[in-house]
Design goal:
The protein is an all-alpha fold and 283 residues long. It has seven helices and two strands; from the N terminus they run αααααββαα.
């Protein structure tokens, strides 16, 4: 029968074992990949969600104030619908790609390798890591273009907002606000034969006061920020993947060196044992 002191000692050993196990598991988490994944998911979610709603608001503004004939902006409507479908595809792809990169980070981190007594890298594994480096680089360059493209509607809405702010400013000293206009036809959004195509004076002020304009403007800003966050996340992923690929390469070379060393030591032991047998036979 165990004494109370022995039971307490067993409990302490169990707690110590659980604590060491937890520390070992936490040490196996690739925190750099985890941070990059969270940043990537957040950026893509902001870009896709806010961009989708902002595009819908943009169509409403154009149909209500700038192009009242449906045939004038039919092509623009089709393009915006296509962009919204592309947004669905981007969200789905990066959800899967982020999970894959996070899993790759788990399997290539040095802390996870320490959990296994023997870790052997293969040519296939190194090729997969190299493929992820190349693909992430291509996606990073593509998202730089997306980031630049998402700044265009922010610039257009900012021009309209600054024009409305100028009309409302008491320091402007404007004699006639009807002479201040915003013509969206000059940006190529709608054709030149669209009617009315522009908004002037009080009409422009009413547009700036609508909920669609206010919401779309700020959503475009958030979507642009989300695209920038995604670019930063992909750059972070690129650095992580490059480091992991270099680690796999070094681990492979080290494993090959250890195999050669063990083979040489085994051959040396065989030669030594044979020489001893020869000496014993002569004596």
């Amino acid at each position: 029968m165990e004494t109370p002191s022995e039971e307490n000692q067993d409990q302490r050993q169990d707690k110590r074992g659980c604590f060491e196990c937890c520390i070992k598991c936490l040490g196996g988490v690739p925190y750099a990949s985890l941070v990059a994944t969270i940043l990537c998911f957040s950026g893509v979610a902001l870009f896709c969600g806010c961009g989708h709603v902002a595009l819908t608001g943009t169509v409403t503004i154009l149909e209500t104030h700038f192009s009242k004939v449906a045939s004038d902006h039919a092509m623009l409507t089709d393009v915006i619908q296509l962009m919204q479908y592309v947004i669905y595809g981007i969200a789905s792809f990066f959800f899967l790609y982020g999970i894959i990169l996070l899993a790759e980070g788990f399997y290539t981190t040095s802390a996870v390798k320490e959990l296994h007594s023997e870790f052997k890298t293969t040519i296939c594994g190194r090729c997969i890591s190299g493929m992820f480096v190349f693909l992430t680089y291509i996606l990073g360059v593509a998202w730089l273009g997306v980031f630049g493209f998402s700044a265009v509607p922010v610039f257009l809405f900012y021009n309209m907002w600054s024009t409305c702010a100028t009309m409302r400013s008491p320091m402007a000293n404007l004699t006639s606000i009807d002479s201040i206009c915003v013509d969206v036809r000059q940006y190529g959004i709608i054709p030149w034969n669209a009617t009315p195509g522009k908004a002037c004076g009080s009409t422009l002020g009413d547009i700036c006061n609508t909920n669609e304009f206010y919401l779309s403007y700020h959503l475009y800003i958030v979507a642009c920020a989300g695209a920038g966050a995604t670019v930063i996340a992909l750059i972070h992923f690129l650095m992580i993947l490059s480091a992991n690929w270099a680690y796999l390469k070094d681990a492979s070379q080290m494993h090959a060196y250890q195999d050669i060393k063990m083979k040489e030591e085994r051959e040396l032991q065989d030669i030594t044992s044979r020489s001893k047998e020869c000496l014993n036979s002569y004596t």
